[in-house]
């Protein structure tokens, strides 16, 4: 099987409610995602997909929804959550709401869901996404 991988990076903040240590406080990360795609037959230029298409579709979505914003749990009980959402809205940035805690595992699952939708019309299959939350910690989603 031949695959290709495009790396996308962004900055976001989050917190993990009920975390047993310091990750229960609001903090930020320089996230990086490696999005791996497969296709049964290479195109007439010998590619799985143009890297720029992944950058435009998935990277564009990340820029709009996750870069320089907060990825938070919808039912987070911390009263600062609503203040952060209001502040971001006042500055033209969204908060991205997850139904579950925004752990690396849940963020990579959400990115996989979104990436598959965004790339569906290209004919490729997203086979793996590795999300780096820190330089030494990552979570993988695999088809």
Outline the secondary-structure elements.
Blueprint: E1 3-14, E2 27-38, H1 51-65, E3 69-73, H2 80-90, E4 95-98, H3 104-119, E5 125-134, E6 137-142
Parallel strand pairs: 1-3, 3-4
Antiparallel strand pairs: 1-2, 2-5, 5-6
For the largest sheet, list the strands in their spatial order.
4-3-1-2-5-6
Distance between the termini: 14 Å
Overall tally of structural domains: 1
Strand fraction equals 25-35%
State the helicity in percent bands. Answer: 25-40%
Helical segment tally? 3
Radius of gyration, in angstroms, nearest whole number: 16 Å
CATH class: Alpha Beta
The count of strands amounts to 6
Q: Which second-level CATH architecture applies?
A: 2-Layer Sandwich
Any low-confidence stretches, pLDDT <50, length ≥5?
none
Could you say which overall geometry the principal axes of the C-alpha atoms support? elongated
Largest sheet: 6 strands, mixed
Written account of the structure:
This protein is α/β, with parallel strands linked by helices and 143 residues long. The protein has a single domain (3-142), classed as 6-pyruvoyl tetrahydropterin synthase/QueD (Tetrahydropterin Synthase, Chain A), CATH 3.30.479.10. Helix content is 29%, strand content 34%. The chain has helices at residues 51-65, 80-90, 104-119, and strands spanning 3-14, 27-38, 69-73, 95-98, 125-134, 137-142. It has a six-stranded mixed β-sheet. Helix 2 links the parallel strand 3 (69-73) and strand 4 (95-98). The longest helix has 16 residues, at 104-119. The chain is elongated, with a radius of gyration of 16 Å.
